[in-house]
Design brief:
Largest sheet: 4 strands, antiparallel
Number of strands: 4
Number of helices: 6
Helix content: 40-55%
Order of helices and strands: HHHHEEHHEE
Radius of gyration: 16 Å
Number of domains: 1
Structural class: alpha+beta
Distance between the termini: 47 Å
Strand content: 5-15%
Strand order of the largest sheet: 2-1-3-4
Shape: globular
C-alpha cells in the first residue's frame, strides 16, 4: 500500500487496512448489525474514549477523521479538565461520533468501523448519549444562534 502525502496519515491508513485484514483473518463477518453496534457502544468506557482522544492529539484531528472516513464534525466532545476553575480553561474538542466509532475498535475483539459502516453512516444519537453517560460534555456547532453551545452534559 503506497503512502501518499503525510507520513502520519499514510501510516494511520495502513493501520486501518491492517485492522480490517485482521478482522477478516479472525473470521469477523464484517459489519456488525445495528443491534450489535448498540451493544458495542454500550460497552465503551471512559478508558477507551480517553485513549482515542490521546490518539487524536498525536495524530491530529484532520488525519484522524480522514483515517476513520468521517467528514467535518458538527458535534464535539470535550476532554475533561482537572482544574479548580475549569470554566476559563479552553478544553480540547474531539469529533463526538468518530470518537465512539474509534473507541469500539479499542474494545477486546472490537471491529474496525469506518464512518460508512458505523450504523450505516448514522449513529449520532447513540454516540452522543454514550459520551454524555460517561460524563463528557458535547458542543454543537450547528446551533446558529449560539455556535459552540453545550447541548448535552451529565445531569441534563
Amino acid at each position: 500500500m503506497p503512502i501518499d502525502g503525510d507520513l502520519r496519515t499514510g501510516l494511520a491508513s495502513l493501520r486501518q487496512a491492517i485492522s480490517l485484514y485482521d478482522d477478516f483473518l479472525r473470521g469477523n463477518r464484517g459489519i456488525p448489525s445495528k443491534r450489535e453496534q448498540v451493544q458495542l457502544v454500550a460497552k465503551v468506557t471512559r478508558a477507551e474514549v480517553i485513549a482515542v482522544m490521546d490518539d487524536c492529539d498525536k495524530e491530529g484531528i484532520d488525519a484522524f477523521l480522514k483515517r476513520q472516513g468521517f467528514g467535518t464534525p458538527q458535534v464535539w466532545a470535550t476532554r475533561l479538565v482537572d482544574t479548580e476553575d475549569s470554566s476559563t480553561v479552553e478544553r480540547p474538542r474531539y469529533p463526538a461520533k468518530a470518537t465512539i466509532a474509534a473507541a469500539i475498535q479499542k474494545l477486546p475483539n472490537g471491529p474496525s468501523l469506518i464512518a460508512k459502516n458505523f450504523f450505516k453512516g448514522a449513529g449520532e444519537s447513540q454516540s452522543f448519549d454514550r459520551l454524555t453517560e460517561l460524563g463528557f460534555e458535547l458542543i454543537d456547532d450547528r446551533k446558529k444562534t449560539r455556535p459552540g453551545c453545550i447541548v448535552h452534559s451529565r445531569g441534563d
